[in-house]
């Protein structure tokens, strides 16, 4: 067999993609067919990676933001020698396969991030480029560039129509991320047809305005032109690059190329056969010639690249042993050996100080401690630094000129901030956190969802957590956001009631391999007294804070979170004066509490006590899983109002008086129900 040409290698991608989509009768063949030539040049000539070790620390990162073209990526992984077999390729879009319908992080070796919701892979790429620039500034030494690689990203028209592309690329240009190279698949087609009717942006001018180096009108099917464009991109080190590639969706299909019909459906047996004839591809489905496999195989070259880096790192370790150990600790996401001891000491000190402050301020106290203890913590805010209290003592800004800094001004880009943080977490070595108002978590919800899907350690700091923010009014007062976030799988949520619970929430978020939302108050909240057992129980998500029934079962149980815990404690005092003895359960994290063993959960919420009232200044339906159908919820079934906080709480019925009245009502209704059952049984 003659040596395979570039076209042979690219056509291997095309036919694996169209045959797989045809077999599954589901998928997107057009993009892999159109971008195969670009992918062949990048992966054959430039990409630094090792298929035998997908987690090699200094690999180039490759993101497929237009993730519907997943078969492009799976074909590349299979052909270059990753643990993605031809049988895995055959199982495309089948249950529990390594080749799901869109790339999923953790499911397929070599997949750097979960993509599919358009534009988010691009944002992840920006986050990874930020991480690379930061880690290089922290750890590289003269003659020891241990962090030195590129981030590449494929995007389509759909990615650039999404607003997220503006948010992240505007920031990328500002930060001069010179090792970020983006390939724009400019094929002029989306699901609905030719995009000219709804997408006429001058994309090159748009990205030049962001501060990108833009390479225009590259023929996406001319390998020499693509190769030269990448060389030109790598020559510019002070700007990210956008390479605009003119391509034909479904390239190679004699009857359907250039049309939306190739975008999201199998071509059909007749057209697949026509493509084979048109491109002179003689092989049966899923059969690749050995010479093509050999031409693609990157295992030996990848191992050599990693071996060269390992030797560099070994010399680095000899010269800078402590720094080398710290680099490995961070890239392996391990906490320092003294973490537990120092964190516990901090919790005790917070408990001893007994400060009554807003929990957003308590969070800042935690950052003063934890961000200085953990150099991997990298924070920021979506233009609300002073309101979110996400800055800390001794911090330094991350800018294009000071990449060693650890604080990012994200600007008014809530979604962009969240997607970028996901990319930083995926990179490893960084524990990102970022702040905005809780109500604006809606802007970022899909990024939160992907953080949860990928189980990434990202901390979302959400302040102004209730109608307690008062005068800013209902546009800024979250009502449905708290229960909505609690419904998301793999996402942990904490709504602390004071400084101590805030410190425990931060400690939990740092130790957890998964995303966490911290919901923090604008208004001052009183410190709550606790004994040693109660202090230790906070980490279990819910615990008995006050129990006037002492050794007996209480007449009722009040369950509260955040600012409403103080309200529940006051209601309990008033009820005691009337010889009604209730228990107050503070439940800062329902998901953590529900993960506890049944014995503990029943100890805190004994099944024998069905008179229960939940109190939270948010939509209340979620709480019926805790109070049952006989219980009551003091919550919100409306939006708030613009007024001082006390007036808004009173207007919305979140008051001590209402809690007292509702508790009595619940106790009475439960007693009547029991009496009715007793009489019926008699």
Summarize this entry quickly:
With 682 residues, the protein is α/β, with parallel strands linked by helices. It is built from 27 helices and 20 strands. It is 45% helix and 14% strand.
Question: What does this protein structure show overall?
Answer:
By secondary structure, the protein is of the alpha/beta class. The chain contains 27 helices and 20 strands. The mean pLDDT is 97. Strand 4 (189-190) and strand 5 form a beta hairpin. The termini are far apart. The protein is elongated, with a radius of gyration of 28 Å. It has a six-stranded parallel sheet, with helices on both faces. The chain has a five-stranded parallel sheet with strand order 1-2-3-7-6, with helices on both faces. A five-stranded mixed sheet has the order 16-18-17-19-20. 45% of the residues lie in helices and 14% in strands. Helix 22 (564-577) packs across helix 27 (656-681).
Put simply, the count of helices is 27
Q: What structural class do the secondary elements suggest?
A: alpha/beta
Q: What share of the residues does DSSP label as strand, in percent?
A: 5-15%
Distance between the termini: 93 Å
Strand count, sense and barrel status of the largest sheet are: 6 strands, parallel
Radius of gyration, Cα only, in angstroms? 28 Å
The assembly state of the depicted protein chains is single chain
Shape: elongated
